[in-house]
Amino acid sequence: MIELERVGFHYPEGQPILNDISFRLAAKERVVLLGANGCGKSSLLKLIDGLLEPTAGEIRYQGERLSTQRLRQRDFARRFRRDVGMVFQSPEAMLFNATVAEEIAYGPERLGMPEPQQVAKRWAERLQLEKYLDTPPYRLSGGEKQRLALACVLACQPRLLLLDEPTANLDPRATGWLVDFLLDQQGLTTLVTTQNLSLATELGQRALILGEDGHLLYDGPLEVALADTELLWRANLAHAHRHRHDDGTEHRHVHVHGDWG
Question: Which of 71, 140, 223, 238 could form a disulfide with 256 if both were Cys (CB 3.0 to 4.6 A apart)?
Answer without folding.
Answer: 238
